[in-house]
Amino acid sequence: MRNLLNILDFSVEEIDALIAVAKEIIACPSRFQDACAHKILATLFFEPSTRTRLSFESAMLSLGGSVLGFSDTASSSTTKGESLADTITMVSGYADIIAMRHPKEGAALVASMHSAVPIINAGDGGHYHPTQTLADLTTISRELGHFDNLRIGVCGDLKYGRTVHSLVSAMSRYPGAKFVLISPQELKMPDFVKEHYLDAPGAEYTETASLEEGIRDVDILYMTRIQKERFPDEEDYLRLKDSYVLDAAKMRLAKPDMIVLHPLPRVNEITTEVDDDPRACYFRQAHNGRYIRMALILKLLGVTE
Ligand code: CP
């Protein structure tokens, strides 16, 4: 049985194959509409979500399967003191596959140790968010057509940003990847990401606090939200929350064929005027998430349509 806890659980070849299936689904969704008939997805969301939970649910429903779960810890027996281990033991008797989001780093790993069915990490605290990375990679493939020799700028909350941790680990496996890490001093990329993925031979990165400097020669600009919910001290959040705002003036500094990604939700780090720029791919990126999650469910359930 396979789980998806970390994007590196899948080889580059497996990710290529998943993206190929997602593209087949986009081209002909009706071919897949009954592929998961009589299968059940449980979505256990101990943290808020719009895109990840709803795209998982849309994915399973579009495959002919069914969905159950909760979107709020308060409506689960966790509030009565039930452990995550017991919750997972129960739910894995009710569903064929589980997508779980949890505020604690490593929670998806714990869940996998108590589950009789595949576990998908839909975000574990400030650690990883591998299915966001699948959506990111699908978007890069559809927009740019390749993964090699790309310069990737990641901007904002690199410290707590689970989406950038997963993206950097995934992109570091492709030849010629170069990273520009754009963050305030207090939100720099954590050592566990640098040591595992960026300090490896062949990986290259630079760091800057300036978006105006970082944007100039990147092929991909990955903007992120400063995440209020991850700050132990609200004063620090208030001081840092407006560190970066991507607007039309800054977009004029960028390459004409750069693409802008963002896992969303955004607050004010990308102005709405940027939405009309053809380089702004973040809404297409979110829609791609539905199709790559369909491909992921098929893979983990071992379903061939
Ligand atoms: N990108 C992402 O994880 O969005 P949600 O928090 O809305 O799921």
Structure description:
The chain is an alpha/beta fold and 305 residues long. Helices cover 36% and strands 15% of the residues. It has eleven helices and nine strands. The protein has helices spanning 12-27, 51-62, 84-91, 107-112, 130-144, 162-171, 191-198, 211-214, 234-240, 248-251, 282-301, and strands spanning 40-45, 66-70, 97-102, 119-124, 151-155, 178-182, 204-208, 220-223, 259-261. A five-stranded parallel beta sheet has the order 7-6-5-8-9. A four-stranded parallel beta sheet has the order 2-1-3-4. Helix 2 (51-62) links the parallel strand 1 (40-45) and strand 2 (66-70). Helix 2 (51-62) packs across helix 11 (282-301), helix 5 crosses helix 6 and helix 5 (130-144) crosses helix 11 (282-301). It is globular, with a radius of gyration of 19 Å. It starts with 11 loop residues before the first helix and ends with a helix. Phosphoric acid mono(formamide)ester (CP) binds at residues 49-52, 123, 132, 263-265.
